[in-house]
Design brief:
199 residues, 0% strand, disordered C terminus
């Protein structure tokens, strides 16, 4: 009799292609890292150094994770999971260290937001390996469901919430560097008020 996790993987493979999620990650994760490095406004040399570390590592993390994700063999899944974890831990370490370093040179108005972003990255990215490991606990088809729910929650936090924070940081910095942005936004808000009052 097959272990329950193999049965779950077989059932899941009939109705769901895990490749779609990995293709999405292959596109969005490097882009999110590029956005983060860009909003830190580091020197060009520092930005280039970070991107050459983070983008290849993110691609390796996703490429290594996929063979294990689709495998019904526990040994294969474990080996590829470990290989994927190496660049995963490297990325988390670099991001946390670099974000911490950058706080000293960031405007006071965005330091607290960037500090929160460090913890958001650590916590949200930490969900992915946990979800990946769920099928290893022989909990049947429920494990596959929990894994997909975990991935989806982590995606919402690590992408949507992350993007909103990045937008807030970029917006605040724009106002600080060029007050005309704030005046333009105030002008738009003033234009909307009469229209609302006429209703």
């Amino acid at each position: 009799m097959l272990p329950r996790y193999r049965t779950a993987l077989t059932i899941a493979a009939i109705g769901f292609n895990e490749g779609y999620r990995y293709v999405d990650w292959l596109l969005t994760v490097p882009l999110l890292l590029v956005e983060l490095v860009a909003v830190l406004a580091l020197t060009r040399k520092a930005q280039s150094r970070l991107l050459w570390m983070l983008v290849p590592a993110s691609i390796l993390m996703i490429v290594f994770g996929y063979p294990g994700e689709i495998s019904s063999d526990m040994a294969t899944r474990t080996i590829w999971g470990i290989l994927s974890t190496i660049p995963f831990l490297f990325i988390r370490y670099v991001l946390f260290v670099e974000l911490t370093k950058s706080l000293a040179v960031q405007p006071v108005q965005v330091r607290r937001t960037l500090s929160k972003l460090r913890w958001l990255l650590l916590l949200s990215w930490g969900v992915y390996p946990i979800a990946y490991l769920l099928l290893s606990f022989d909990i049947g088809a429920d494990g596959w469901v929990y894994k997909q729910v975990g991935y989806s929650i982590a995606d919402i936090i690590a992408k949507a919430v992350y993007a909103i924070i990045i937008y807030q940081v970029a917006r605040t910095k724009s106002f600080i560097e060029d007050p005309s942005f704030a005046r333009v936004e105030e002008g738009h808000a003033g234009e909307k008020a009469p229209a609302a009052s006429r209703r």
